[in-house]
Automatic annotation (TrEMBL), chains A, B:
Keyword terms, alphabetized: Pyridoxal phosphate
Biological source species: Winogradskyella bathintestinalis
Oxidoreductase found in the keyword field: no
Cofactor: pyridoxal 5'-phosphate
Domain of life: Bacteria
Every Tryptophan synthase beta chain-like PALP domain range: 20-307
InterPro entries documented for this protein: TrpB-like_PALP, TrpB-like_PALP_sf
Protein name: Pyridoxal-phosphate dependent enzyme
A Pfam family the protein falls into: PALP
């Protein structure tokens, strides 16, 4: 039975049309060697080649386009030090909207610089979640800016769906699509796309064992959190939210947990064999496939490479 | 007037057909950001995604396929510690031919391992050119193996042509194609392809200032060599040969020399902005475009990304 909050196929198609001028239809790459290693046919949707280097551009663009003219004139605000901060900054810049980015004062300079490149307005605060939320709330009140959530907002989730929609256009016969799961926005969006645009494609997530809140949430039936998050996959340390969890619960087949060394090995394989730059989070789905080879044997398996923003000075596998 | 040694269009088309089962038709990538930085429309033919990670697979495959059955049964030999060694090993393996690879005993273990992965038979020798040639000659005499040259052999040059042929199939309206120049095999092959498959496309090479033998050869009209080769572009330290120089003299428009810091900056741009892994030699053409921006302004410029085999532990730009 369909989830009552489920967006229609039409809504997703309209979302794709709406954001197309602001995103790349990224290439789908294959690798004979990785097919041999994994025993299945892998199709990598390369969102590391997306504008600003990650799928987050899709959701950010959709969220900002969806605002009223009055809302747009007051700007948007988010608190993030990662890819969503860059995505909101770039999408806002392209749409002529002011972007306020709340970042912890100890965020790496490289991340601050990336936001500045896209003309985001950085507001520094203490590094606690409370301080970040307080700073964002202050901007909302003072400027009338609209808060954008990186993963738990319908417009963001629907925007994220478009990566899997494009993948299924190129490879309609997929048996599986795998994504990483952190905040749940990409996983939920992918599950919606597979539900509407494929008859048989199951959606599976890879998750670091060290931050396995989503895995535990599917078991307990409620949103679980992590006490510690000792993973190199810095995009996957957050937990699910009330907008994406119902979709994940209904339309995601399973979550496969992987160890840190498995993430590093998968990352190294993709760098060395595919010659593409991916961030650690993006290696998690391949690590999941390699861990459960028999499940995927001879199947057509799509993998969303979520992003390629990585500190080249500090690679985890060399 | 046509060079009398010039292969016909038909020969190049047959070459492409012949090697197709053994190579990838690699993707052509674009980057809006690099277009903005350079002021022209760049089309990157990604031979870093080629089998074994470099365009050398094309020439090696063609050279081995072109042998007689008797020659094939006696194997092939080359002396190289770079991409050609891997290419010959892999092409020979796929064609069921024995490959003898003469390598200096002090070659990096990672390069020896790559050859072993493809089942090449490594013969170690002292690291001088004389020792390498003597070792290769010994194999020729003892085993009857055919010597394959990495850049100065017609079959290798014609095989290399197929990269630019594929690029021109996808982008027929190119004004320029740029390649790096080392031994001259890729540059000559690209010039042949542009001559036969484009009406207007000029071919230009980028060359490190620190190993500018090809630039000086075009001026003097004879093959020049380098006294020193202090460049990070380890694939570009060799000099032209008597088979490729006549083609380069007749069909290459010019050679643009670039400094080491320009190569590093171009390499960094491609890694960080395009999220693809390229070796230093592959950054030389973009460095040449960025050095001579006015020449390429608003033009359609193809660049052959020659390969992606790089030591991740020792990146020159981080």
């Amino acid at each position: 039975m369909d989830n009552p909050n489920l967006p229609s196929k039409k809504i997703l198609l309209e979302t794709h049309q709406r954001i197309k001028p602001f995103i790349h239809n990224t290439p789908v790459l294959t690798s004979q060697l990785l097919n041999e290693v994994s025993g299945c046919n892998l199709f990598f949707k390369c969102e590391n080649f997306q504008k600003m280097g990650a799928f987050k551009m899709r959701g950010a663009a959709n969220a900002i386009i969806s605002l009223s003219e009055e809302e747009k004139s007051n700007g948007v605000v988010t608190h993030s030090s990662g890819n969503f901060a860059q995505a909101v900054s770039l999408a806002a810049q392209k749409l002529g909207v002011k972007a306020y980015i709340v970042m912890p004062e100890n965020a790496p300079q490289v991340k601050k610089n990336a936001v500045k490149t896209y003309k985001g307005d950085i507001i520094e605060c203490k590094s606690t979640l409370q301080a970040r939320e307080a700073a964002a709330n202050k901007i909302k009140e003072e400027k009338g800016a609209t808060f954008l959530h990186p993963s738990n907002q319908d417009e963001v989730i629907y925007g994220n769906s478009t990566a899997a929609m494009e993948l299924l256009e190129v490879q309609p016969e997929l048996d599986f699509i795998l994504t990483p799961v952190g905040g749940g926005g990409l996983l939920a969006g992918t599950a919606l796309a597979a539900h509407h645009f494929s008859k048989k494609c199951k959606v599976i997530a890879g998750e670091p064992m060290e931050a396995d809140d989503a895995y535990r949430s599917l078991i307990s039936g409620k949103i679980e959190t992590n006490e510690t998050v000792n993973t190199i996959s810095d995009g996957l340390k957050t937990h699910l939210g009330d907008r994406n969890f119902p979709i994940i619960k209904d339309y995601v087949d399973k979550i496969i947990r992987v160890e840190e060394h498995e993430i590093k090995e998968a990352m190294k394989l993709i760098w060395e064999r595919m010659k593409i730059i991916i961030e650690p989070s993006s290696a998690v789905p391949l690590a999941a496939v390699l861990k459960n080879k028999s499940e995927f044997k001879n199947k057509n398996v799509g993998i969303i490479i979520s992003g390629g923003n990585v500190d080249l000075k500090n690679l985890p596998f060399v």
